[in-house]
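The freezer alarm interrupted the setup, so I double-checked each line after restarting. Inputs confirmed:
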Amino acid sequence: MSTTTLSNRQYILKSRPEGLPDRSHFELREAPVREPGDGDVLVRTRYLSVDPTNRVWMSDMKQYMPPVFPGEVMRALGVGVVERSLHPDYRAGDLVSGLLGWQDYSVARPGDIALAPLPRLDAPLSAFLCPLHVSGGITAYVGLFDIAQPRAGETMVVSAAAGSVGSLAGQMGKIAGCRVVGIAGSDAGCRYVTEELGFDACINYRTEDVAEALGRACPDGIDIDFENVGGDILDTVLDKMNLNGRVTLCGLISTYNDKQPRPGPTRFPLILMQRLRVQGFVVLDHHARFAEAVEKIHGWMKAGKITWREHVVEGLENAPDALPMLFKPNKLGKLLVKVSE
Amino acid sequence: MSTTTLSNRQYILKSRPEGLPDRSHFELREAPVREPGDGDVLVRTRYLSVDPTNRVWMSDMKQYMPPVFPGEVMRALGVGVVERSLHPDYRAGDLVSGLLGWQDYSVARPGDIALAPLPRLDAPLSAFLCPLHVSGGITAYVGLFDIAQPRAGETMVVSAAAGSVGSLAGQMGKIAGCRVVGIAGSDAGCRYVTEELGFDACINYRTEDVAEALGRACPDGIDIDFENVGGDILDTVLDKMNLNGRVTLCGLISTYNDKQPRPGPTRFPLILMQRLRVQGFVVLDHHARFAEAVEKIHGWMKAGKITWREHVVEGLENAPDALPMLFKPNKLGKLLVKVSE
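Predicted 3D structure, all chains:
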């Protein structure tokens, strides 16, 4: 197969958004796929993972890796299939995950796009994008067990509870023996996490008084906050943290569209008074833990203790419309763009 | 000796201050010392420790132990001498530390005022109030070695650097092999910590642009922030924290006189992006570490690696005027009230 016969659609970041991103910030280009050189692999994208961190990469805020610069292909994690390999560790047909970007095909050295073979486990492909993926279960696993370090009987609050990471972190909290209280943005989300995922309670922050509802749902206070949202919700949660509580700072989605930096939590002094540990983490730092996480999560899937949902947007062409969906409570579980079969 | 012949001056908290505390918030009472009962000790106060946390105890903010209530003797740590003991573990003449309060004499069960004998070490009495005291060196030791966990070659910033805890934390940072940069409120304070204590640099936040000065003093960024102040200075320091940096939240003195809760740091999202660990601690939780801390600090004192200064206010009657001095840059080192010889 000559790759020059393949055409590649690519979404290029055109400008940095102020506020919510939309289609106007991207430009669709079409170009022939370049011929792989020695050490390259050619990967066909199957699914793209749509994550809050994509919005961070579009901005020039201080962040944990270089942002995407205007003119570059929009960065995104995804899974795909190797179509051609000039690298000794990969063969045509291999299923892989990596920073495939918003495009039909990637041609790159594996290390440059964080390529890794999918684990050889008995699981559907979509599981490798959610419970078994860095943007889902692996983040939940590291953030909960390594960063928050739960003890049985503790109370754990999870924000963005119906989302990809939150839904899995909460289920793992139940496995760890915690009382788990979710915070979500819709009644459907609350029903999902309590009825399907086994959370003990869930608060709809759009319709309920969060402080009052947290008081009811957490009669013994809060020991762990698995924080995906930030802003006012975090502030309210801080107010109820117990002595020696831990805040795993996994995401701050409520702030990513801010045009101006906003003030931090008013309850910041409680970090001192309640001897809290507030720890930011980025899962990519914890590569050494991925194998254990995948093994454990896969075991829990088999045992029926971990379940998940996907919300699939069909077609690469719709990726720019998928991204803003993250910031609205109109989907449950993992948001994906299906690029090819 | 009958204790009924002893008269006890006591400062009673009259009202909770809004803003800076002053004499109007206290009432001086004089009453005979009550007769010790079985299990009690009678302690004569020699020195009182004047600490930022005293201001916290005067307020009804959420805090790490119950506040002082109006009508109660003002709480304070101090050292004294046992005048009479009806407790098997104490004898007249013993030197002790504990929550002696703003009064000439305490009559209490040892456990009720956290009484402990002074370590039997070759050191002047004042050392037991500063480098060897929970309000000084022991806090610095636990906050640095247990909470921040320094590595040689790292850069450490210490706010309130000329104060009791800051001056000792910075010297311990040097012992740990760190580059140590202080932040203080006067040129005299800056000279003290660089010339006498061996800090590598010090910034006068009242006369310098802190962001710019930090950039110059910390060319490799900041790995550890030993935070005693909070507010804008903390926000500025956060902006320069390196990946995996640690913020030891030891005090937030800039906020203790706030009439309204103020917003937290604008750079709060950097805790996530830079994977910081922000940890509040209160030294009283770490009792099991005190013996090691005292032994190590005493060794460093003997080796000339730890030095300190005291600022002594004479007379219990002047305690209400001593307290607000904490919030002004007009003293170096540990602030004490001398109550008796």
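Quick read of the result. Chain B is about 25% helix and 25% strand.
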